[in-house]
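User: I'm new to structure prediction. If I give you an amino acid sequence, what do you actually give back? Let's try with this one:
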Amino acid sequence: MIFMLCGTSDARELALSIQAAGYDVLTSVVTDSAATTLREAGLSVRTGRLTADEMGALVREHGVRVIVDASHPFAEEAHRQAITATQEQQIPYIRYERAGLVYDNHPLLHVVPTYEAAAEVIDRMKGSVMLTTGSKTLGVFTKRLLSDPDIRLVIRMLPRQDNMEKCAELGVEQKNIVAMQGPFSRELNEALYRHFGTTIMVTKESGKTGAVDEKVQSALELGIHVVLIARPEVDFGTVFDHYEGVLTALSELF
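Assistant: Good question. You get back a string of structure tokens that encode the predicted 3D arrangement of the chain. For your 254 residues, that looks like this:
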């Protein structure tokens, strides 16, 4: 049995490739909507976050021989729990992560290491901000920026009830919420930027499959400043950015 943390669309495709190669795969996601997508694709799936101890119990219960971590590049807690669980259970850990993006030294591109640093850049520049970093760290931006009359903070996020409740709790007005499910086309990105008069777009460097490059490029071409939050640095050990590498590593283990 292979236990696989999934957090992106390409993780689903990788899981299907592993299953097609003849391996038993149990996938794991955080949300019910993601679980539905995996089940519809024909994959076995469990839902909810796991601690290292809970993951260890699952490893023992299902006879898991390897954990493939294909969770989102910014899912730092999931990475830590999976690495700890594999160390404690003495089984291999394999990390799959979509390839990072390479940008030219564009004058409108501001690469920062943290969410706090992104908020600092916005605070200096002011303007109409399209924030596309999700709800988890929304408070970092609202606490510093929401009361500034020279900053309009527009939040783009998934149309989930808990996201809307968090926006209300933090004081984000409904007129400044874009609740939509991606992926977004270049045309839609550009329409949203124009509608809100966006002068700054904030995003995370998640990789090509998540269409971050499209979002960034369309903003830059419209003369919009882009604040790009770099991936967190994690010592994964074995890392692959292509399916074939993961499949080869698994074939050497089984």
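You can read the tokens as a compact description of the fold. Here is one thing that stands out. The chain has a mean pLDDT of 91.
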